[in-house]
Amino acid sequence: MQTSNSRTALAVAGVLSVTIASSAFAQTTLTIGTVNNGDMVRMERLASVYEEQNPGITLDFVVLEENVLRQRMTTDIAAGSGQFDIMTIGSYETPIWGANEWLVPLDDLPASYEVDDLFDSVRDGLSHDGTLYALPFYAESSMTYYRTDLFAEAGLDMPENPTWDQVRDFAQTLHDPSNDQYGICLRGLAGWGENMALVSTMVNAFGGRWFDMDWEPQLDSAEWNEAISFYVDLLGNYGPPGASSNGFNENLSLFNSGNCAMWVDATVAGAFVTDTSDSRVYDSVGFAAAPHQVTEKGSGWLWTWALAIPTSSQNQEEATDFIAWATSQEYSELVAAEDGIAAIPPGTRQSTYANDDYMAAAPFAAMTLAQMEKADPNDPTLEPVPYTGVQFVAISRFQSFGTNVGQQIAGALAGNMTVEQALQNSQQTVRREMVRGGYID
Amino acid sequence: MLLNLHSHNLMKTLLATVICWTVALLIFFPIFWMVLTSFKTEIAAISMPPQFIFEPTLDNYRRIFERTNYTRYAWNSVVVSVGSSILGMIIAVPAAYAMAFYPSPRTKGTLLWMLSTKMLPPVGVLIPIYLLFRDLSLLDTRLGLTMIFMLMNLPIMVWMIYTYFREIPPEILEASRMDGANTREEILKVVVPMSKGGLAASFLLALILSWNEAFWSLNLTASRAATLTAFIASYSNPEGLFWARLSAASTLAVAPILIFGWLSMKQLVRGLTFGAVK
Fold first, then answer.
1. Beta partners for residue A59, in sequence order
2. E strands along B86-195, which residues?
3. A76 to chain B: nearest residue by CA?
4. Do residues A347 and A300 lie in contact, with contact meaning Cβ atoms separated by under 8 Å?
């Protein structure tokens, strides 16, 4: 009898221990929607370290094209289907989605995260009403890349902080299309995140703005006309053929192949143009500030790729822990150890730029830092504006009218219409959208 | 005179051959270029003028296999495209049979209405379908994707099979009925064997359309049921060079269906030209 009892006890203990063990190791799968950027791909690879440290967590990455990702995220949040626990979003969506209460507020981060180490501009860009809704994975401003060898040959000197007039003069001197060498490469492809990123910073630099304080569109102003005329003239005369279909990647290809004397674009390209395996001009690239004109305000943009948690996620606690890890100093140290110090995700933490080893290993780091410190999404223009965002207007309607204006400007660049026509059409479109949105009558 | 006629015919044959080859090469070139680019480095992939001779590398393939589980995507593609095509055949054959052999005054209208559903852009029904899938727990499942692919291809399948069935003389069916065949036997033992080529072509077309479908697989799947089109999309990069690796991913994605299409070319051509040679 006693034997039978002890057997039963043993069996119960066995079942209990198995149950406890299985619940202790119950796997939580975090589904992460992300884009195929170099830094994101690296995170995907190094995430196995996090899984080893946290045996109960499995990370499932869903990599999508940027526009598809945006559409998927919006559908997922709006339908509350909880397909994703973590989303990769930008500084445009974060405050809008945060205000809509679609994202989990991140105000309970552990002290070890050192939230004050993040650049203020980056943190502000990911907040709504002072609450942080996403953690920055990497951030970028814009700057001027130029070919030091061509400048030396022509006896030219690029100032550290050039004006657009100076840039045009350099482009004129260095433009040699018969040898496939173009004075300047700039974004021409229509899209709110493509040509409009550059064009908006040019308008800012020429003293213009998207809206006045009463939300009245300003695209028919003299500043817009001057900026767009300058852009069309510069890129049309000294740019590569078919510039109206060139986005970031096309210009990167041209610059890395040695076809551009100058290129004004994202600071994140610093790592690509100096890459010994992917760039033919890696040893002759110089870095200067994004050009200004009547003002330096808003002459360089600010964009952040960040990790956020939708309120529909069933695993919010675990997701918060992972995004805190992936955007931490600990993660930066891991990247430095695995892939070299120059590969640390740029633009988010001040401590990265206080590291002498990083500054020595990344020749573009000093200019990136200067540009990041200059960009202020809360004060982006010469005249006051009611919106935040340097190269975008952080309202939900911008995505639609921004692309529409981008198409008009690409049309002017391709010679399908005059700058005046393009701006007149744009003004009408934006005004109509703002009336529909109830901003103006 | 005879010599003249002979040389005239020779010229005609030669011209036809040259035109055929030119068209074939024009169609084939993008695929050839994609395969070639997949063996280049990123810098060689973007070089101008384009390089035909270069030092090939397998690095792009190595990196893809290191990063993604190709077989999972490929298996999902096989399951949903074969599954949806079989399911489509099961529904389309009886539907086409009824329409071809027992037409009613509304048959033509029904056929046109079925086809008109193909004119609606899929994005127009994305939200209702998404909500339905969410409520039925079909998001990111192979079953859900199989059903949506089947529904997407059903109008074309019914139309195609209907035209093949119309080629069969009704007298043959009458004869089989005289011999005591019921409807099931009529379909399976008479109609289907007589339009084997057409049915194979319809099945293959549905298979290819499902294999290449991107919109629904990108919008209704996440990680578990994602197909090869989602696999390709994951290699497009907004900030960075990616042509060589994207070409390698695309080559891996089209390889299975290309090989399958090549092996079944005879049936496909026979089925597609069946009506023309009657």
1. A30
2. none
3. B130
4. no
Q: How many domains does chain B fold into?
A: 2
Q: Which of A125, A142, A134, A141 is nearest to A387 (CA)?
A: A125
- Nearest chain B residue to A257 by CA distance is B47
Closest CA to A405 of A387, A384, A422: A422
DSSP A178: G
Q: How far apart are CA A350 and CA A118, in angstroms?
A: 6
Residue B137: both structure tokens together: 């727990």
Mean pLDDT calculated for residue range A82-111:
91
For the segment B131-159, what is each residue's pLDDT rounded down to a tens digit? Answer: 999 999 999 999 999 999 999 999 999 99
pLDDT at A6: 55
- Hey, what domains does chain A have and what are their CATH numbers? 2-140+303-361 (3.40.190.10), 142-301+367-436 (3.40.190.10)
Please judge whether A277 and B43 are an interchain contact, meaning their C-beta atoms are less than 8 angstroms apart. Answer: yes
Distance, CA of B60 to CA of B47 (rounded, Å)? 17
Across A63-67, A109-113, A265-269, B47-51, which has the greatest mean pLDDT? A265-269
Contacts of A63 (CB under 8 A, 6+ apart): A34, A35, A36, A40, A44, B234, B235
Instruction: Tell me which H or E stretch contains A333.
Output: helix A329-339
User: CB–CB of B237 and A249 under 8 A?
Assistant: yes
pLDDT-based confidence at residue A245 (cuts at 50, 70, 90): confident
Could you say which of B48, B134, B140 has the minimum Cβ distance to residue A180?
B48
Q: What is the mean pLDDT of residues B103-122?
A: 88
Say whether B139 and A81 touch across the interface (CB within 8 A).
yes
pLDDT for res B237 = 72
Given a cut of 50, is residue A411 above it in pLDDT? yes
Which residues of chain B make contact with A36, given a CB cutoff of 8 A? 234-238, 242
Cis peptide before B49 (omega within 30 of 0): yes
Per CB-CB distance under 8 Å, the chain A contacts of B235 are 36, 63
Same domain, B40 and B83: no
B166 with B109, same domain?
yes
Residue-level pLDDT at A398 = 93
Q: Quote the ipTM score.
A: 0.72
Contact A64 B234 (CB under 8 A): yes
Helix (H, G, I), strand (E, B) or coil at A127: strand
Chain B residues whose beta carbon lies within 8 Å of the beta carbon of residue A252 = 240-241
In-domain check, residue B62: no
